[in-house]
Input
Amino acid sequence: MAFDGARKPLVAVDDLKMHFPIYGGLLRRRVGEVKAVDGISFEIMEGETLGLVGESGCGKSTVGRALLRLYELTGGTVKIDDYDIAHASPEELRKMRPTMQMIFQDPQASLNPRMTVADIIGEPLREHQKGSALEREDRVLELMDQVGLNRDFANRYPHEFSGGQRQRIGIARALALNPKFIVCDEPIAALDVSIQAQVVNLLEELQDRLGLTYLFISHDLSMVRHIADRVAVMYLGRIAELAPRDDLYAEPLHPYTQALLSAVPEPDPSLESKVERIILRGDVPSPSNPPKGCNFCTRCPLVMDICTKREPQFQEVRPGRFVACHLFENT
Amino acid sequence: MPDGALPVLDVKDLKTVFKTRSGEVHAVNSVSFDVKPGELLGVVGESGSGKSVTMMSLIGLLPSPPADVKQGEVLFDGQDLLKINARDLRHVRGGKIGFVFQDPMTSLNPVFNVGYQLMEPLRLHMGMTKAQARIRAKELLELVGIPDAERRLKDFPHQFSGGMRQRVMIAIALACDPQVLIADEPTTALDVTIQAQIIELIKELREKLGMAIIWITHDLGVIAGIADRVMVMYGGQVVEQAPVRELFTNPQHPYTRALLQTIPSVRGARAEKLNVIEGQPPILGAAPAACPFRDRCAYRFDRCDRENPLRRDVSPHHDAACHYDFTKGGAHGV
Output
């Protein structure tokens, strides 16, 4: 699906902050905080897939959870369908829940092992009291068809399914209440390559058919390139770069995006030997004590004086392309 | 690599069965392969394809019961590792054959410092004194690119980052100058930028030390960059084996072909729709009487249901286990 500027944003995030306290010392006082997400802003258009990529610990899963208010936000606003999620009361939030759903990484851990597949998929319907018991049963079977699960297996338990099929159960459950927006948190990371493609194709089909909007969180840059319309690259709690998919992969602007893309192995030996790899030195700094200035300055191959002093602005440097880097400031 | 060189490790017809309460699982079925000195052999396959179990069987790392290495020969250093006693095997393992596991956090002991864990194989296998071992341990940490090695010997595993921990694991595996290093998904638990660092390191070490490496992974991208030769496993069997370029440009098994088409890339043209291998990998409840890939195969014909295909040579260094002949576009031997 092509990105279309005329469409209206379904999700609008402004200056989202999510800090977790660290308690320490004899009296377990608050001694610091982990700035898991530290001031990020973006929009997701209706029917669009925004890919959110980054390495472990960069805060991408926290963003996904904060968007659905599975955490109490430290700061900033989140609007989904013009509705302020960040400041809604519990009752208001409950009414909003059907619009926004989540698919989790580990289908083993996110499905109750003591419930049958029909119970799992039907639970959101029961919880929000949609229809009679009979209608709910029909809906469950319809959902199983939609995600490609055999109806005959409705009374089986999650452990009787393979990883890919379990992920389909998770997807059916997320679809039960006809959501508009789904956060997919690493939905294919636990699956084998041959099964990954099945799940990604299913997600794409469902999007076309039901007009869904996705936030697709992943560390797999090649899969994100496949499924996303636009891609946001996170590093240490901030967005380093946000751009339409083709632009980002053809010409990454931020030095971190460049290094990240160059590090991805190429499944073709003749191309692989031509890849110019930027090997980043060192590890990601701790989010409880991020470096001063630009948070990438400790590993950046193009670091300048100003990078260690002042934080770069996240700004539009070309139409539709946002970068937070001093190389692109004042240009 | 010299063509006629004798293999440093030669595995023949290995078969491993797990006995569980719900029946037998035939995890490894007649797997044969060899590795030449200095060669990097990539082993590719999905979870449950038998790639890790194969490697663990050959150095006796599987608990028995439930595992039972039923048949086969593992020729290494003039002896059959499946026949020698536990004491001698212990000497080979961690000594002449080094092992690096996927998850560096669970394979390092959290209550001993890194120095102790590095010195342990040196003292056990090489008979070094504490002082000698400490000097060598420091050298090893420097070899794998850990700065400030002297001080870090006293640190515990949790004080290292994921990438650094994997470097420590590699240092331990290299401690006794192994002839073969078996690396089981060594970069899977790491981030891409850290994975790139570890791959660079292994390439460097290989040039410097010249040992043979068996690299197990599910990531064809990693294999493309480092391997000399690749072995593809499916359903507990080797389905194809070829030099790396040959395998990627001229795959001869339907599984390899399908696998190569399903993986997207960050470079080059972008596919509109991902190719899919429909279905699920097989459950290995019994010794296979038919081709394990047949249910998912686009080239299936009657013979595939009757007979498990043997590996046959496609060219001198390339073999595949399939009844279908892609060069001819029909069944073999018809």
Notes: Chain B has twelve helices and 14 strands.
